[in-house]
């Protein structure tokens, strides 16, 4: 399998004269082995070599395989890119009053407008690079690797997140898988590689150890498995890249080929098409200028038209169509249940805010309906939900609580308008829409049997809250248990696992988070560094949860764990918001502490079967409710 890796000896040499002095690479130590895929080993007794360094990308390779008469570039694309960059530099030099270089004289035939356009493009590139660098600096103080290592944390595996890149094709990537990565323990002026094994996995991130270090963790390092610098074993041989053992251990073996063959025979590596799969899984069908219907963040009972402004890792920044300065926006994932195709509200009878814009703006177009997440079809012809029925529901304005709720309106296609008892506006402007199969609504008694604090109606004084008394007092009936979603997938989450999660109260933020409770398919998400009152109940298949390393992979900004000072400043402003219930996805309410215990409704046992609650040890437990005959 690794016949291309030849043994390294100090008495083997190969040299050839360089054609131009400017192309000579720096002399290398004669005892430093460089393994090549053509079976030759290069050493440098005379300071000259048969190797060349690409002047564009810095790749080291065999000189005879390089392009141009002077063998200065490893590929045609590098040659062209170098030429293009030289032109930009010459334009800049001319605008600054410097004499043009020889390579830039061709630009003298171009009009001034073309030169200025090229210079403007060059300046824009510099600005983008500065923004990228600034974003990286803001996260400089936080490292997932250090955070996990120093606390012995574990992270949720990528397979838990079917909506994330590689979530459905991660395969059997695990500890001991071998990869080829850049060798940072090297004094060479060019980029070289060596083989490393995965010591620990944390989402997309892997703790790697160079082959040859055995049990020595001294040079262990973290790397994103889906990054551009990690490759399957054999990639260097196929790409003409040199494999150079780390300087710290180069003295340990005289025959590196024999060492590699012994270590790698039978070992697993990444699939050869792994990078291609990563690229394909990061292609998103939603594009800027697409129009959608999305929940109105100020009035949850209705939807509005919004336009896709940008797409990052499948997350959409939507700008409400009537926003003139394009600052009135809303963030959500493309698979979010909060967005719909144009015309959806009218088709099911949902309230909709008509836009003052009479016609589409130039370039805007309706998103094809097939791109949206599909909901499960339901049969509403038989026994079904009715207005006035009681249930328990996650409050979308305070996701840390599950509240007493009422079905206020039954829409088409299985959608329901729901209100939180004791907190509803007179005009119903704070009703919210859930589908009948939504994992965010539950039958009466769900919280009690699963030992979750149920938030009673605001102003209700008969505590502890009892469903039997409340139904009798309000003359209401509970929604039939059999109408609720009882599917529980084998999601793979465990209590204590780390992940990156959207703060749904401020959905543009993605934070370091932990799974603290698991109830069937329901997860309690805690934001590291914050108080428990900011926790959120989220479904295990929510598109607002991501593996560790997702932000790094997609270029999104990750919010590190909050420090004490930032918590105090945030809490100070939040206390003011808690006095009144907000109509937006911002602000939190304090949970009311209830003493929960089992009770009888209409004289019959109406509770979940025991043994399926709080599945910290097995997220795939069945979800059953006892039915009355």
UniProtKB/TrEMBL annotation:
GO terms for biological process: chromatin organization; negative regulation of DNA-templated transcription. Signal peptide: none annotated. InterPro entries: Mbt, PcG_chromatin_remod_factors, Znf_FCS, Znf_FCS_sf. MBT repeats lie at residues 142-246, 254-355, 368-457, 465-561. Residues 1-32, 561-591 are annotated as: Disordered. It is found in: Nucleus. It comes from the Eukaryota. SUPFAM superfamilies: Tudor/PWWP/MBT (SSF63748). Keywords: Chromatin regulator, Metal-binding, Nucleus, Repeat, Transcription, Transcription regulation, Zinc, Zinc-finger. Residues 45-80 form the FCS-type domain. Residues 575-591 have a biased composition (Basic residues). Residues 563-574 have a biased composition (Low complexity). This is MBT domain-containing protein 1 isoform X3. The lineage of its organism: Eukaryota, Metazoa, Chordata, Craniata, Vertebrata.
